[in-house]
Design the sequence.
């Protein structure tokens, strides 16, 4: 039995409006694979999950830098990955040396896809699509956070942004990690780089760092599908992820706009602070 917190990976496959993401992982409550599509989410409990190098074997599934082979109830197929696009530096920066409740890693910002999956008898072809891979480990997801990912734009661009409440001593702070790959260059916004969070709510993120300014406008197409999340090492929490959210991303440097891009294919999670969540749940 895995008894040291949790470890999980996120493998996203997108081709136009079709999207399937797999989340293999293990926690003190057992091994699992979660699946997310625009239609909903599923969880498959597994007898075991093993890690060898950069590959994850979860039951009859194998996830590796070369692609994924999936064999789950009602879900089978294989998708081959093109060359992965990792970041040159750890997205956590110096925070990776701190005792964090959740550590985040980016495995590939964007890579091409080929192959297909059969879900409940329906074939989903991902030839010519784009993939994304990240990983998390620790004990719990943050109590409040927002996370956004998209690599399907009219121009070569990939975006990952995460803002989260970080506990520290008797208090805490809001941490930020964000990377944009645009035409082969990385633009990074992070707490350890001196980022200023100008705005962060369910519909917009605005960040400033040095002579750069980033604006992300978000319009989810639905309230999100439920996914189990770690809480003190066990998968007892629930968050919601929106698929195919519409976003507009603008980046300026030295007062000059570098791009203004739109996409209807972002993945998005928003977990507001407890007080705000209580207000949202009131009748």
Sequence:
């Amino acid at each position: 039995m895995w008894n040291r917190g949790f470890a999980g990976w996120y493998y996203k496959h997108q081709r136009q409006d079709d999207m399937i993401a797999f989340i293999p992982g293990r926690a003190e409550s057992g091994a699992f694979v979660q699946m997310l599509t625009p239609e909903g989410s599923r969880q498959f409990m597994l007898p075991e999950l093993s890690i060898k190098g950069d590959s994850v074997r979860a039951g009859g599934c194998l996830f590796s830098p070369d692609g994924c082979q999936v064999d789950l109830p009602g879900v089978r197929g294989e998708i081959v990955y093109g060359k992965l696009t990792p970041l040159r530096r750890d997205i956590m920066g110096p925070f990776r040396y701190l005792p964090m409740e959740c550590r985040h890693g980016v495995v590939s910002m964007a890579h091409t896809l080929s192959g297909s999956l059969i879900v409940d008898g329906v074939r989903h072809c991902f030839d010519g699509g784009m993939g994304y891979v990240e990983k998390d480990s620790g004990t719990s997801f943050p109590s409040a956070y927002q996370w956004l990912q998209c690599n399907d734009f009219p121009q070569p661009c990939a975006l990952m942004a995460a803002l989260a409440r970080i506990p520290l001593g008797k208090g805490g702070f809001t941490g930020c990690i964000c990377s944009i790959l645009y035409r082969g260059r990385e633009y990074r916004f992070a707490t350890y780089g001196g980022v200023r969070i100008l705005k962060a709510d369910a519909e917009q993120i605005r960040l400033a760092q040095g002579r750069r300014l980033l604006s992300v406008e978000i319009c989810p197409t639905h309230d999100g599908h439920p996914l189990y999340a770690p809480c003190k090492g066990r998968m007892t929490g629930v968050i919601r992820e929106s698929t195919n959210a519409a976003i507009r991303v603008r980046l300026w440097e030295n007062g000059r706009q570098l791009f203004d891009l739109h996409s209807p294919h972002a993945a998005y999670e928003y977990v507001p602070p407890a007080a705000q969540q209580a207000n949202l749940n009131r009748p």
About this structure: Residues 168 and 204 are 26 Å apart (CA to CA). DSSP finds one helix and 22 strands in the chain. Residues 278-283 have pLDDT under 50 and may be disordered. Residues 274-281 form the longest helix (8 residues).
